[in-house]
Amino acid sequence: MTVPPVLSVEHLTIRFGGLVAVDDLSFEAAPGQITALIGPNGAGKTTVFNCITGFYKPDVGRLTFRRETGASFLLERMDGFRIAQAGVVRTFQNIRLFPGMSVVENLMVAQHVKLMHASLFSVAGFLRLPRFLHAEAQAIERARYWLERTGLVDQADLPAGSLPYGAQRRLEIARAMCAGPSLLCLDEPAAGLNPRESQGLNELLLSIRDEHGISILLIEHDMSVVMQISDRIVVLEQGRKIAAGPPDEVRVNPEVIRAYLGVEDEETAVAVLQGEGARA
Amino acid sequence: MESDAKISIAALVRDAAAAALVAGLLAFPLLGFRLVDSARGLTLDTRLLWVVYAAAAVFCGRLLFSLARISLSMRRPAATRPVKIEAPGRTRYLFGVALIAAAIVMPWLPFADRNIIDKATLILIYVMLGWGLNIVVGLAGLLDLGYVAFYAVGAYSYALLSQNFGLSFWLCLPLAGLLAATFGVALGFPVLRLRGDYLAIVTLGFGEIVREVLINWGGVTGGPNGLSGIQRPSFFGLPMVPAATDGGTTFAQFFGLAFSPNQRIVFLYYLILALALATNLFTLRIRRLPIGRAWEALREDEIAARSLGINPTMVKLSAFAIGACFAGFAGSFFATRQGFISPESFTFIESAIILAIVVLGGMGSQIGIVLAAFLLVGLPEWFRELEQFRMLAFGAAMVLIMLWRPQGLLSHRDPTVRLGTPPRAKEAGA
Fold this sequence. Notes:
- The structure holds two protein chains of two kinds.
- Chain A is an alpha/beta fold.
- Chain A has helices at residues 45-52, 80-86, 103-110, 112-118, 123-126, 130-149, 165-178, 195-212, 223-229, 247-252, 254-261, 266-279, and strands spanning 7-16, 19-29, 34-38, 60-66, 72-74, 88-90, 183-187, 215-219, 232-237, 240-245.
- In chain A, helix 8 links the parallel strand 7 and strand 8.
- The two termini of chain A are 30 Å apart.
- By secondary structure, chain B is mostly helical.
- Chain B is built from 17 helices and four strands.
- The interface between A and B is large, with 43 and 33 residues.
């Protein structure tokens, strides 16, 4: 691979008291690809996410993030908001919108850093100088674009908390995209969606990857999403990596079948993995 | 649709007639007879025409009331259509403009005596404090129980700067705001990691510390005796006194008026009105800027805000500093109005009242805060006739309001930006 990975995780270890949540984990996410992180409940997937996005500080390990510009960042040394400014933006397993603010305001908050600079820390904004008004109009256009992509443009002026569940999931992705990431980290984006909605999610994620060239790191339980859109899958079990590779390899890996599904009967497990993949 | 309207009008007339009948029955014994005290003793006089008047008045009133209610309820579903969504905002805007106009003409109305203008000035101080605290509590969601500390900092900075360095009110006003903002940042730093109840406790302690320092640092602050003889404000350099001490021109002389102590009262009233309106305009504008949205985002979900690149430290400190700055302005106005300040004016109950104004007004609502300030500061003043039951009536009024509107008087929140795509029009066009 000549292109350096957008994210390299090296020897990541994190302990909570006596519990080793993530144990010497190393993997890479290639630029412009969708990398999925899967594993049974409690395998440490969200913990890995929290380390990457600065919510936890790892005990051991190095997390390197490289932008397409060539700049690289050591994420384990950075505050969460600086990581987001550098270009790693995440969504949450339990949706975290700003429920009292309108849908489009949620997307404006996501463009805070850019607008704050344009407003010269509020001075230009307060005087309503053209430089700020121009940036604000651009931000609104960007918000409109992502609302159209996620099919939320009709609900733009409603409070975000009043949207139905599936729409809130899409809004969270739209909001993350408005923050201008080069690596998008999605924590179970398909959780709670019906099959039709997950199909729509697949198309959205593929277009984010293909049209916008954004790398995606994905935690997901829904195999119809993982198997269909991932370029590479990393499988965790109890904080350790047990397999990594393209979906077709991982799907038939006996170690994965045993660990991930926790099923003794190998045939059932294979059926579930492949059947789920085939259904989607 | 039209027949519907007719039916409902017939029903309304019937309803009004029933009300008129009840009114007539009640009015018959109450209004229809009158005891006349004449030379021959008490006689009974009949006034049957009055009964008819009462019934007619109730009939018309009831009809108008029903019509008004129906037209309101017919307008309400229309408000959900995006085309008309500006309408409630515009009425509120007009209401605000009317309120400001009323405040401007108030001192010239016949009923406005010195007492009323004084009370209105007091209410406006609390309106301004409420608007300032609203930035911290209503927008940024940081529960501050020690807001009066910044008010005290503003008051003492003006008093000390003017007494020790002879600086004028107009120079001290920005300095007092700046000093209060510095104290806001000083409070902000240790409490950055705290939220909710814990933050409230620390801010409460901060307010008490400031008060204790004012009491005990006798050499500078005058201790419990406070500072007196604080310079009164001048009208752009023209003092408002009967005669200028150093041969200069007084306000009355300059404008060729006879001196009257009321001039200063009215001037102070307009001064606090201008300061309060400046606070309001500032808040309305900053809400629409990125920093204002970041405050609200932080109130809604701090973790999500952080994950979008918002620096929570800067956002919280700016909220504390700006909120404190307005308390500082209000404080220096308070000092110049009273001419005397002591730590007794800055007790915890003041913080509690300001917070109650913000909460009662409906977190984040600017007009709600005006109404709440009227209720919380005005009511105890007007309840003075009740003497020792005054605070009882005040407490009962608060309980009733919170039962009636637990979310505050006006808890409506206007979005700071609208995409404004009329979805139905778009579908029809497509």
